Each structure stands twice: as C-alpha cells, then as structure tokens.
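Researcher: Next sequence.
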Amino acid sequence: MFLDFSAETIPYMSIITSILFSISLIFFGWSSIKSRSIKNFQFLISLFIGLYIIGELFEIKQISAFLSLPDGLGSQIHAGATIFLTIVIWMRLYYSQKSIKSLEDTPRDGN
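Model: Next structure:
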C-alpha cells in the first residue's frame, strides 16, 4: 500500500487524526464518567486528549483562518498537553513509589 504525503493530503490527515482522537476521547470520557471520580487516570487522560484535540483543530488551516488565530498556537497547545501528561505520569509514579515504601515499612503479622 502506497501512502501519498503530498501537500494536498496533509490537511485531510489532520482531520482524520482529529476524528481518531475524538473517538478515544469518547472512550476515556465514558469510562471516567462511569467511575465518577475526577482523580482517576481515565479522567486525566481525557483532559490530555481534549487538550490535544483542541491543538489539532487549531492547526487545521481552514479553522485557524476562520477564527483568525495566530500561527503556532496549535503547536503550543500540543506542547502544553504533553507537559500536562508528563506531570500526571510523574505524580502517579511518585505517589505509587511512596505507597509501596509505606507498605514495606509496615510490620508483618505472624512473623
């Protein structure tokens, strides 16, 4: 299968990417609504995907020209979403390591 990456197909690929991210946002959003907690991982991933979709939509030339947005705003939103995801993963790692250490420090019964 041959993929054509000419200048005419790139805007369509951005739209396809936005659609795929929207589908994943629906799945993660639905699972976070079912769990009814803002602190769960599904909700945080839903926020990341939502930010990423907004950045992707701002990178589509027709939308950015219609809304008269500055160039590069979509890329800046992508960078912000990536920083948010990095902070979420590091915080989850930090708290999981902290809870594992507290489990190791507790005395065992029967030994």
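Model: The chain has a mean pLDDT of 76. The helical segments are 10-35, 41-59, 61-67, 73-105.
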